[in-house]
Amino acid sequence: MNKKELIIGIGDDRPPMNYYSNTGELIGFDTEFAKAVCQKLNITPKFKNIDWANKEFELKSRNIDCIWSSLSVTEQRRSTMKFSQTYMTNKQSIIIRNSDKSKYTNLYSLSDSRVKISAVISSTGEEVIKSNPYLINAKFIESSTIEEMLIELKKGTYDAIVMDYTLAKANVESGEYSDLMIIPDIDLANETYAIGFRVGSDMTDNTLLNIVKKYDLSDLYESVETVTGNSDAAYIMSNGEIIIGIKENNKPFSYEENGILTGFDIELTNTIYKNIGIDVKYVVIKDWSKKEEKLISKEVDSIMNSITNTSELKNNVKFSGLIVNNKQAVIIHRSNQLKYPNLESLSGSKIA
Predict the structure, then answer these.
(1) Which pTM was predicted?
(2) Does the structure show a pLDDT above 50 at 325?
């Protein structure tokens, strides 16, 4: 802490947790979360790309101070790292090509030495493959990065890959990897994300372990939008409950999976309020255009659902600190990519 900076080790491109935008800016949930925490601690975060297979060495040799990049807590890693409190739940998922969805439907169908399966070296995915009684029978092939793994699966080099569900949802079933899919209804052990420090580090004892507990509800750290007014924090604290308005089925921020509400915003909110002893009640706002009315009438206490900080909203909403950078995108048919290469070419077109 004396050097007033925190060198944070991150893995390869890992949307939506740590990844580079088209302009080369490092963004993502973990990136923004780390910046927010470091700002509170009055230190400067410095992000350093590391070879994921050598992350323990990077920590031990003090090339980095911590790992903050969709790092899953495992018993094996506890021997080489000291973890902060967990901040997000996660699980491992199995990805295949859409064309193989009738061929690979469960773990048993993958339990064959002719099945080529991959995970990033030294990842939780590799641990799962080598410890699962079915997957261990497949032919395991190491991958260096998530991107390499996805490309090789798409090409047909692999039959299946194992990766974090959070990362899988952001990468497959749309865009460049729309021909890949997550095998549904496969139950691999749930896990959690945390920040990894050197064994013996005092950061988890005195600093990050209780970071949320240092700030009360009126502080801007908790990363939600609160109704303007000095009495709101005391009112919510006295009730022991906060009512949060959300959009319906707004992946990846809030959505239901197997009847359980989950998503980045949901997991972050649950973690924050659990640590200050507040129960969270989520209310779906069917008509999102009326969200400000719901706040003003006190039907909800806050909104946390990929809401964008705009000048117009500031008239009725008091914003927290920012948690994720975002931008708007223009979507066109792939067949029209030569016709509409820039904004000027869209002038006079029908746009929604």
Answers:
(1) 0.59
(2) no
